[in-house]
Amino acid sequence: MCLVKKCAFGNLAPTLINGKRNFLIYFCHSARLVDISISEGPEFWNLLSSSKENKEMNRDRMFVPVSISPYGFASLLGRFSFAAFAFVAAAVSACAQTDYAFKPINFPGATATFAYALNDSGEAVGFYTGGGCAQTSCAFTYSKGTYTSFECVLENATEAFDINNKGQIVGAYSYYGGVAGFVYEGNNSCSPLGDPSANSVTEAFGVNSKGEIVGFYIDFSGNFNGFLYYNGTYRTIDCPGEADTQAFGIGEDGVIVGAYANSTGGPWTGFSYKNGICNPISYPGAASTYAAGMTKSGEITGWYTDSSGVNNGFVLTGTTFTEVDAPNTSGTILFHPNDAGSIAGFDLNSTGNHGFIAVPK
Hints:
Blueprint: E1 4-8, E2 23-29, E3 32-39, H1 51-60, E4 86-87, E5 100-105, E6 110-118, E7 124-130, E8 138-143, E9 146-150, E10 157-163, E11 169-175, E12 178-186, E13 189-193, E14 201-207, E15 213-218, E16 224-230, E17 233-237, E18 244-250, E19 256-261, E20 269-274, E21 277-281, E22 288-294, E23 300-305, E24 311-317, E25 320-324, E26 332-337, E27 343-349, E28 352-360
Antiparallel strand pairs: 1-25, 2-3, 3-4, 5-28, 6-7, 7-8, 8-9, 10-11, 11-12, 12-13, 14-15, 15-16, 16-17, 18-19, 19-20, 20-21, 22-23, 23-24, 24-25, 26-27, 27-28
């Protein structure tokens, strides 16, 4: 894969792998991408796992199926069985030219770091594992060379997913038996968010400067539903005719981006949402596409999964996709940008997962 590759926009239907009803899962460390597998198996699993299973899952974090929500806590609660695993060797290639410089974001001493967002002041947020974290994962802020860790008190794991230009941070924390979104109040205090229609999982993934918060929840039927939260009121955001919708980001103009699917196991199609209409976003030839964030000027960032199961970042400007991949890696995820076009994300290479900020040259 090239570091930067442009192609014309087209609403191409995502393809199934090898023509079979397969779906991607990930071999995980702390429920985050470490390697990629393909498995024939069920499209849905029961999220109401027993207490013993939850304990085992949180302890071992092995072979968690997260293609339905590759980087969210929903992956921690699954109960599943698969007949076979076929690991995909992700080939790494290089191109001579790139339009972005990649600034590493690695929490000191961490075993893995995931950067999710940065605002116009250059403050970035995400989460890390190891590095003195007392929970399974701990959230962090990064500003002017300084990392600051925070944890929602008395919870199992804390992960920050977005920060707006006023410094408001949203994310999700896990507790025994479920997952809640949060707004960070400072001093390790987190104000919980839980959609009234949720079973036991709500995650807050995006916030704009107005304070509008988007994310997704899992309902009692086991399906994903997007939500918009503002001034104490939750509103469900679902793409018409689709079984599952996940909202990841919201622009200053209220446009929401995310991904939808006809089944929990995918394949997934990105979207931009406004006034009840979901406009599809599909990277040409991709198996799945996820729209994760957007700039004030309307550029959309995200990632797609190719037919080999490899994740690649992209920027959509008007009708043109630009593939943006960190160099010398076997997978790149782009999430929230700031209005200058710098993008927070993370990658996988031979030493593990690392966060970065991709800065336009």
